[in-house]
Each structure stands twice: as structure tokens, then as C-alpha cells.
Amino acid sequence: MAIVFELVVNFGDDDIAARAAHRRVVGAPPLVAGGRDVRLHEPLLGRARGLDGSPYLLMSVIPVGVGWGVALDQEHEPVRLSAPQLTGLGHQLYRLLAGFTGYRAARVGWDPEAFTDPAELRQEWADELRSGALPGLVLAEDVLPGMRGAAFTPFTTGFVWLPYTGEQESALTWGSAG
């Protein structure tokens, strides 16, 4: 089973915005973590269905070598990072996201797909939306406006977020910062 550290973005039905974001990622320079360059795999762009059955375009931006058991990484050396290093990588992925338009929801972290489906957020995560307990969640201003708590703040024009608080030391992180 793969465990993926990634940026996941729900573009709804906006194919033009999804393809523009895809091009932006393909042309992006490597990120830096732990004193080394971390390239990005070509983004995975596909169709998904929400908890309510509604279709949407989903894009995953995956740093090379950072996950555990990721098929795309088979030919690459593993990049083991501490929680602070992963946090820095996460902030760089959010800076990349800030250049995207037309998406509905996004989040960086370990397997964050479930948090990019507005129907699932509405049905399964309503209390956390109100309390601000989903750090790093970015929503278009018109997505779930009545369910968002006061902790949401502006992200970029047209988007709000629960500010990213970073990654914690866990079995998925490597030692201390270095």
C-alpha cells in the first residue's frame, strides 16, 4: 500500500484550469528539502467521483522519492525527510498552488484526497470545518461558505484556507531536521 505526500487539487469540471495547472507544475523548478533538490513527478490528472456521485477533475502533484511504496518512485532513490523538512516542502507546494486558478478544493499532506471532495467535507467533516481542525485545506470562496468556521482566512484571490501548520514527527518522517 502506497502512502503519498502530495498536493491534491479538485478542479471540478474546469478542464482549462486543470491543464494550465498541469503545465505550470511540469515547468516548475525542483523544490528544496533537506538541503537537496526534490523534483516533482509529472502531475497525475484524472477523473474522480465525489461522495455524492458528482464527477470532477483531480490532480496530484507528487514530489519524487518522498512517499512510501509509491509506484512512480520505483526507479528513484528514496528521499527521507524530517517533519520540519516535510513542512518546508509542504509550504513550497502551497506556493505552487497559489499560482493555480479555477479549482474547488486542495490540500497538501499524506494522502489528502478525501479532503478535496466538497460532498465528503459536507457529510463527514462538518464539525472539523467549523472548528478549523483541517489545517492546510484550501477552498474556493463559493465552496461550503455556510459551513466554514472563523479560522478560515484568505489564501489568494478567490480562495480561503485553514493555514497549514506543517507535519508532525511520525513513522512517516525521518529523525530530526538536518
Structural features, described:
There is one protein chain. A hairpin with a 2-residue loop joins strand 2 and strand 3. This protein has a seven-stranded antiparallel β-sheet with strand order 4-5-1-6-7-9-8. The protein has one domain. The chain is built from four helices and nine strands; from the N terminus they run E-H-E-E-E-E-H-E-H-H-E-E-E. The protein has helices spanning 15-26, 83-97, 118-124, 126-131, and strands at residues 5-10, 31-33, 36-38, 44-49, 55-61, 105-110, 138-140, 153-156, 159-161. With 178 residues, the chain is of the alpha+beta class.
Q: What average pLDDT do the residues reach? A: 92
Secondary structure tally, helices: 4
Return residue spans where pLDDT drops below 50 for at least 5 consecutive residues.
none
Please state the CA-atom Rg, rounded to the nearest Å: 16 Å
Provide the domain count.
1
**Global morphology:** globular
Please describe the biggest sheet, giving its number of strands, its sense, and whether it closes into a barrel.
7 strands, antiparallel
